[in-house]
Design brief:
This protein is 13% helix and 52% strand. The chain is mainly beta and 180 residues long. A hairpin with a 2-residue loop joins β6 (54-59) and β7 (62-71).
C-alpha cells in the first residue's frame, strides 16, 4: 500500500494497487479534527479538550473508541535527541487491547534523504500490526509505504497510525523551527 498526500494541510489517501482504501481530511481549516472514510464507513477523530490529549472516535455517528495521550517523561529540551515525550494510544470500545505507534529505526542515506520506520504495536501482546516506512527528503517528495503483518487489514488502526505519525512529525518540525 502507498500513502498519497493530497495537501499536507488538508488530507491524504491510502492506495492499494491504485484503489483508494482510506481517505482522510481535516474537518475545518482551524481545527485538528479529522474525518476519514473507507468502504461506506464515515469516521471522525474529534478532540475533547483544548490540548488534544484525548480524542473521541466516531463511526457513522456512534462512538467506537478513544485516542489518549500518554506522557513518557524521557524528553529533553532544545531539540536534543531523544525526543520521546509521549505517544498516543488507541483503545477500541469492543476490545481489551490497545495500540500505540513506535519509531523502529532511522537512517540517513545521504545528507538530503532520510528514512523513517514506524510500527503499530499491540499493548496486550506486543504484536506488530503494521509497518509504515517514510522515505524522502528536502530534494525529493516523501514516499510512504504501508505493510500489514497479517491478512486482516483494519482501516481504523491504519488511520490511527497515520494520525500519530503526523503528530510526531509536526512536533519534530516545531523543535527544528522554534528550538523548543
Amino acid at each position: 500500500m502507498e500513502l498519497t498526500i493530497d495537501n499536507h494541510s488538508t488530507g491524504f489517501r491510502v492506495l492499494d494497487d491504485n484503489v483508494v482504501v482510506l481517505k482522510a481530511e481535516r474537518m475545518k481549516w482551524f481545527s485538528d479534527a479529522v474525518s476519514y472514510d473507507y468502504t461506506g464507513n464515515k469516521c471522525q477523530m474529534i478532540a475533547t479538550n483544548f490540548f488534544r490529549t484525548k480524542l473521541n472516535l466516531l463511526k457513522n455517528g456512534k462512538s467506537f473508541g478513544e485516542i489518549t495521550w500518554k506522557w513518557d517523561g524521557s524528553w529533553t529540551l532544545r531539540g536534543l535527541l531523544p525526543w520521546n515525550w509521549g505517544a498516543y494510544t488507541l483503545k477500541l470500545d469492543k476490545s481489551l487491547n490497545s495500540y500505540y505507534l513506535k519509531r523502529k529505526s532511522w537512517s540517513k542515506k545521504h545528507s538530503y534523504i532520510s528514512s523513517l520506520c514506524y510500527v503499530l504495536k499491540s499493548e496486550l501482546d506486543s504484536e506488530t500490526i503494521l509497518t509504515i516506512r517514510v522515505e524522502g527528503g528536502v530534494v525529493s517528495k516523501e514516499e510512504i509505504k504501508i505493510e500489514y503483518h497479517s491478512s486482516k487489514q483494519d482501516q481504523d488502526l491504519l488511520a490511527f497510525a497515520l494520525f500519530s505519525i503526523k503528530a510526531i512529525l509536526s512536533a519534530q518540525k516545531a523543535v527544528i523551527y522554534y528550538g523548543v
